From TrEMBL:
Similarity annotation: Belongs to the RnpA family.
Assembly and interaction partners: Consists of a catalytic RNA component (M1 or rnpB) and a protein subunit.
Gene3D superfamilies linked: 3.30.230.10
Protein name: Ribonuclease P protein component
GO biological process: tRNA 5'-leader removal
One GO cellular component term: ribonuclease P complex
Keyword tRNA processing tagged: yes
EC number assigned by the record: 3.1.26.5
Gene that encodes it: rnpA
Keywords annotated in UniProt: Endonuclease, Hydrolase, Nuclease, RNA-binding, tRNA processing
Amino acid sequence: MTRIGRLKRRAEFLAAAAANRKWVAPGLVLQAHARDVAREVTGGAAAATTAHSTMTQPDLRLGFTASRKVGNAVLRNRAKRRLRAAATETLREILDGQAVTAAADLVLIARPATINRDYRSLKQDFRRGLSKLGVIAAAAGTPR
C-alpha cells in the first residue's frame, strides 16, 4: 500500500526542482525527485532532525505551488485546490493497492490555464506526467 505525504519545507521544493525531471502540460507542470529513503533514515542532517524509520516514511510526497503569474491570491488558492483534488483522486485510481516504482517527491506547479481547464483534462495531464517521469508504470498511467 502506498502512503502519500506532503512537502512542506522550501528545501524539499528546491530539491525537486534541482532534480531536473519535469513534465510540462497545459494545465500543470510536474516535477519529480526520486528519494533514497534508506539514506534519509540512516544519515544526513535531514535524518537527524526527522528521526523517522522507513516504516513511517511516505512513499510519495506531494507539494503544490502557484506563482503570481496565475493570478491574485484567490485564483492561486483555487488553482492549488484543483491540483490537490485532481492529484489525490488520480493517485487513488492509479495506485488502488499497488506500490509506486520508487519513493518520490512530486511538485505540481499551477499554470494560468489550471483555473479554467476541464477537470478531466487536468487529471489526464497529471496521469500522463506520472507515467512519463517513471513514477508509475506506463500501463497504470493509461486512463480507465
